[in-house]
């Protein structure tokens, strides 16, 4: 799972709307839905309940979103602090040499 996937989850959780979250992420709704489905499959838990009445966060989803928000906040803090990192195989490693 990538940090980008966690950012997608967080935005969907904030907006409770795939279309709006996709717009904010700069991706198609179908792309965002596919990524969220993959994350849910990998976790073995539904983060969002989809119904005719809208999109709702499941009890498991509340905990997952809480953790995802914490992880994305750490990344944002490190980036704002100017801490250099390298991306290897989709994973960011922070480089202490610089």
Class based on secondary structure composition and strand pairing: alpha+beta
Percentage of residues assigned to helices? 55-70%
- Shape descriptor: globular
Overall pLDDT, averaged?
85
Computed CA radius of gyration, to the nearest angstrom: 15 Å
> What's the β-strand tally?
4
| Total of DSSP H or I helical runs spanning 4+ residues | 4
Write up what this structure looks like.
- The protein has 4 helices and 4 strands, in the order αααββαββ.
- The protein has helices spanning 3-15, 18-25, 29-43, 59-80; strands spanning 48-51, 54-57, 85-88, 91-94.
- The strands form 2 sheets. The chain has a two-stranded antiparallel sheet.
- Helix 1 packs across helix 2 (18-25).
- The protein starts with a helix and ends with a strand.
Short précis:
This protein is of the alpha+beta class and 98 residues long. The chain has helices at 3-15, 18-25, 29-43, 59-80, and strands spanning 48-51, 54-57, 85-88, 91-94.
Chain-wise SSE layout:
Blueprint: H1 3-15, H2 18-25, H3 29-43, E1 48-51, E2 54-57, H4 59-80, E3 85-88, E4 91-94
Antiparallel strand pairs: 1-2, 3-4
Helix pairs in contact: 1-2, 1-4, 2-3
Main traits of this protein?
globular, 98 residues, two-stranded antiparallel ribbon, 4 strands, 16% strand, alpha+beta
